[in-house]
Design brief:
This protein is an alpha/beta fold and 374 residues long. The chain contains 12 helices and 6 strands. It has helices at residues 2-23, 34-37, 50-59, 75-82, 86-106, 126-144, 147-153, 168-180, 197-213, 224-229, 276-323, 331-373, and strands spanning 67-71, 111-118, 155-160, 187-195, 241-244, 263-266. Strand 3 (155-160), helix 8 (168-180) and strand 4 form a beta-alpha-beta unit. It is globular, with a radius of gyration of 24 Å. The model is unreliable at 1-5 and 12-39 (pLDDT under 50).
Length: 374
Amino acid sequence: MCLTVCLGLVRSASIDHCDMNSSSSSSFPSSSSFTERTAMSWIRERELSLIERLTANILKAGPMPKHVAFIMDGNRRYAQKTHVERQEGHSQGFEKLAETLRWCLNLGIHEVTVYAFSIENFKRSKEEVDGLMELARQKFSRLLTEQENLEKHGVCIRVLGDLTLLPEDLQQVIAKAVVSTRAHNRCFLNVCFAYTSRHEIANAVKEMAWGVEQGLIKSSDVSEVLLGECLYSSNSPNPDLLIRTSGEVRLSDFLLWQTSYSCLVFQSVLWPEYSFWNLCEAVLQYQLSHPSLQKARDLHREGQALQQMEADRSCVAELLLHRGNGKPMDGQSGQTALLSYTARREERVRCFLTALQHKRDTFFSDLSSRAVLA
């Protein structure tokens, strides 16, 4: 019943929103105001309207996603549609991100991951790539001036991707932003920059190989679960909901591993025109699919646990065989050996993941320190 009522509210409000957009273009500033908006805050301080609050409360009566990912597509098409420069479209796309973060907080969604810049985007024209790099410099520099606001909301900024592909000065300002919000833990914004999922998975394999080379783990410790712990996103739960705007129905190499059991919602609206009602509609779709998604996740976790148990048993059997005593072990002794091996493996993995996190933290800290010295 709640879903039916809320769906009616969302559809009605969406129609009103579309009518307002079609009747007036004044809600989006012209390209002449680009410079003014470079100082726009990352998080908007705006309360929901009465109808928005009512809708949010109805939605929150059902299962809510804790982590939402966005493929913010349509900035360039929006620029073409509204006859503004392409860079202006990207700038208004950032403004929409700031607004969307506020909506997410109002809905109780405390983790958001966004696809800001794909490694594939480096293939675009030099002018557009340089413009995107400059926009990133401005926005991350702006973030450094918003420490009071970020601390107030407890916002932790993480940047996921291969930062070594970026200009060094941009690497440094990103690192300063990451380090300065590292201690915040009430809500999280993960910005995927210089990122593709295949690159991320390949890097996770390299990290596990590094662990084996360093003697932190054994090759037999490598597993599906461990690979997931070596991804850039290892500090976050997998997204419950992934939203792509602009009408494209593909993932474009974004969070391929993490969204295996996520609700995927594709919406036709261009990202700079995204509305609170579009977000509510996506959340409704998540709620409708929640039972089947939860069942699939539980079955997958059970399968992973059984797979790990079988792998541990196989390793124990091999170790006992190599001892060469030729005597079969009774059930109790075998169970004891299995528990002992499992405990040692878990300790190895724990130490490896701690070392990996330290390596990553050091990378950001060193970059941030170089920025301060510069």
